[in-house]
Amino acid sequence: MNKFFTTVSNIWKIEDLRVRITNTLLFLLIYRIGSYVVLPGVDGAVINAQHNAKDGLLGLLNMFAGGSFSRASIFALGVMPYISASIVVQLLGIAVPYFTKMQKEGESGRNKINQWTRYLTILITGLQAIGYVRSQVPQEAISPAIAGFWFNLITIFVLTSGTLFVMWLGEKITDKGIGNGISLIIMVGIIAQLPGAIGSEFHDRVIAGIGGPIVFIVEIVALLAVVMFTILIVQGTRKVAVQYAKRIVGNKQYGGVRQYIPLKVTAAGVMPIIFAQALMFIPATVQSFFPKIATNGVLIALSNYTSWEHNLVFGILIILFTYFYTAITVNPAQMSEDMKKNGGFIPGIKPGKATTDFIDGVISKITLPGSIFLAIVAVIPAFASMLHVNGVFARFFGGTSLIILVGVVLDTLQQIESHLLMRHYDGLMKTGRVNGRTGIPTAAGTTPPVI
């Protein structure tokens, strides 16, 4: 315990780190305050009374938006349009030569890609704002003074501006704060739902007497076990030994040491779950647009996230997308080329194509257990719901939210560790560093994002 307080004291002694943490907290506070500001002309009491967006896709979006979605807040759409735009631009970088060329242009190319991402974010936000106004804002909650065309126009403008402002906050947190700003905003939104979810579950189990306090304690222990298991797998790496040749420059010797390339078991992160979820929402969308086939048994089964058909297809899609996303984010040929340029080689493996094939084989082998893990984590909330766990609380047992929480927290700890160790202070852990959070070199020489 003394070591913990000493570490906190060391953090506060470092001016740059202290300023960054303070800036991060202030920006996040602005975001949380804005999430409670209701859209102009909307009666917040009516919105809260209806308890919208608690299940399915809307419940997931509401969790990522920190509850703003169900409150009809000016930040109702959160950063999800920006995430969607980033995914689209990233895929365009693989399929469209123009975007591929920009990715290789260094800083100027990244600036162009960011600009394209912002433009696409505005377009996606505008489209989603139209759908939000029509489906999530009931007529009885709208003030008669501005109801109609002008209300729709103003609301779409405010929602789009709100998303752009949240995106700006994320960029400021990245520049002047600590860690990935967009990821931190999503994480704070998810954590904001946790106290209410635990309170609701406590009320159902203990106060209402549905199951009793023993069941509630078992659920909390199970949640902690799932979180620990997730941390273990997310930090899991396969270390590939690399030997660097000795070089004598003047009176000094360089190289001649053995280092390791840490290949992550879950290199794709949370992206396969996001892609798979997007596809699994198609049956429900088809049912809403074509009421005549809404009674189709297959569509009903695939739309029910507690059915075995839904979870089986969901798990298979996650495994397939894990291999796909790992293949486009981790480039063994580039890693082999960089290793060769720096005079490094894998013991027992010839440089060049043999090294590329070896790294590719290792990645293929560790991707299988990683993809199975992601599939298991993704379907745990469904099993929790089938065991009569509160729907909101069940989402914390796995899925996208849990992996985002674990990944962002570990990355933030790594940022703090780097500042401490840079100034010769002890890190947050006894070993002096957060293990398993080293990024994997990719084709562009960058580290895959958390989300």
UniProtKB/TrEMBL annotation:
InterPro entries: SecY, SecY/SEC61-alpha, SecY_CS, SecY_dom_sf. Keywords: Cell membrane, Membrane, Protein transport, Translocation, Transmembrane, Transmembrane helix, Transport. One of its GO terms (cellular component) is plasma membrane. It is a multi-pass membrane protein. Its main location: membrane. It comes from the Bacteria. SUPFAM superfamilies: Preprotein translocase SecY subunit (SSF103491). Gene3D superfamilies: SecY subunit domain. Pfam families: SecY. It is found in: Cell membrane; Membrane. GO terms for biological process: intracellular protein transmembrane transport; protein targeting; protein transport by the Sec complex. Component of the Sec protein translocase complex. Heterotrimer consisting of SecY, SecE and SecG subunits. The heterotrimers can form oligomers, although 1 heterotrimer is thought to be able to translocate proteins. Interacts with the ribosome. Interacts with SecDF, and other proteins may be involved. Interacts with SecA. PANTHER family: SECY/SEC61-ALPHA FAMILY MEMBER (PTHR10906). Belongs to the SecY/SEC61-alpha family. The central subunit of the protein translocation channel SecYEG. Consists of two halves formed by TMs 1-5 and 6-10. These two domains form a lateral gate at the front which open onto the bilayer between TMs 2 and 7, and are clamped together by SecE at the back. The channel is closed by both a pore ring composed of hydrophobic SecY resides and a short helix (helix 2A) on the extracellular side of the membrane which forms a plug. The plug probably moves laterally to allow the channel to open. The ring and the pore may move independently. This is Protein translocase subunit SecY. The gene is secY.
